[in-house]
Design a protein that fits this description.
Layout (H helix, E strand, L loop, with lengths): L1 H29 L10 E2 L9 H7 L1 E2 L6 H5 L3 H31 L4 H12 L6 H12 L19 H26 L3 H9 L4 H12 L1 H12 L7 H6 L8 H4 L2 H10 L5 H30 L7
Antiparallel strand pairs: 1-2
């Protein structure tokens, strides 16, 4: 009986700890899913009572018509290509650089400099893309920018894939580095001591101990990143190029295209935007399942599920 009560107390304590997160998921993640029905409607306000529920109940059902606008435009291939290509590059470079920087930080002997570098790298994560966009503009403005004498950046799209990739790395590297650094610090240091006694160099220790030990974390973050391969970072692609028309061939992604449609106030734009979001999430779910199945085939123990 005492054992039963002890177990119940532990279960209750753990449940209470999880409750705030569960409520947050229910209210902000699962409950709004009912609004996905707008993707299949010609959603319009219906006065005199234009509430969300009333509008949904009185809007006409149009099936998959709202999904056509994503592919009907002549820019469909451009925005899909850019979304996939940029995200693929972001996933690879962020993973490689974050792991490399985390390993370097883990080797620092001075705690002061280790914490200083972590803080400096993590700080950009909290900066809004609006502010970051003005930083970039201060450098590249064709009239008064610090680098305007080198090239007219805002009317030359060839350099923008590099600019956008660099901006993404600058803002996201610190966050991902901290995650990998936490995984590295949890590795048993006895393994490194044994390897050093056997004559293994630092480089060999990294490949034989560090990388295999953090492989589960790498796989989890990779699977989650693949799930968002159809979702672009709107703040990055809208604020950094400053919405310059000549750059749209290299900066237009699905999210910015949908926003332009909403700005144009096209009839039924709400249904189109919802359809685009639903499309991205369905594709993301398929990508997660596919990536997890691929991982499970080669490394079943480290698969996400």
């Amino acid at each position: 009986m005492r054992l039963f009560l002890t177990r119940n107390k532990k279960t209750l304590a753990i449940t209470m700890m999880m409750l705030p997160g569960a409520i947050w998921l229910l209210l902000l993640r699962y409950l709004p899913m009912g609004g996905a029905v707008i993707a299949f409607q010609d959603y319009r306000p219906h006065p005199p009572n234009p509430t969300l529920l009333n509008n949904i109940l009185n809007s006409n059902f149009v099936g998959f018509d709202n999904f056509r606008f994503i592919f009907a435009t002549d820019r469909a291939w451009i925005m899909i290509r850019n979304t996939l290509a940029y995200n693929a590059v972001f996933i690879v470079l962020t993973t490689v650089f974050a792991i490399a920087v985390a390993i370097c930080l883990s080797e620092l002997r001075s705690k002061f400099f280790a914490k200083l570098y972590q803080t400096l790298m993590f700080y950009p994560f909290f900066i809004s893309w609006v502010v970051a966009g003005y930083f970039v503009f201060a450098f590249l403005d064709p009239t008064f920018g610090m680098l305007s004498h080198v090239r007219d950046w805002y009317f030359d799209p060839t350099g923008w894939p590099t600019i956008l990739t660099s901006a993404h790395l600058w803002k996201s590297l610190g966050f991902n580095t901290v995650i990998y650094l936490a995984a590295i610090t949890s590795i048993d240091h006895g393994m490194y001591e044994a390897a050093a006694i056997d004559g293994a160099s630092k480089w060999r220790q990294v490949w034989a101990i560090t990388i295999p030990s953090i492989r589960p974390m790498i796989i989890i973050l990779f699977i989650l990143a693949v799930g968002r391969i159809f979702n672009a970072d709107f703040g990055l692609f809208w604020n950094i190029p400053q919405n310059m028309g000549p750059l749209q061939n290299v900066t237009e992604v699905i999210d910015t295209y949908v926003y332009r449609v909403m700005q144009a106030n096209i009839a039924g734009a709400m249904g189109m935007a919802t359809a685009a979001g639903l499309f991205q999430n369905v594709i993301g779910f398929i990508c997660i399942m596919g990536a997890n199945a691929l991982v499970r085939k080669f490394d079943n123990e480290n698969a996400l599920f």
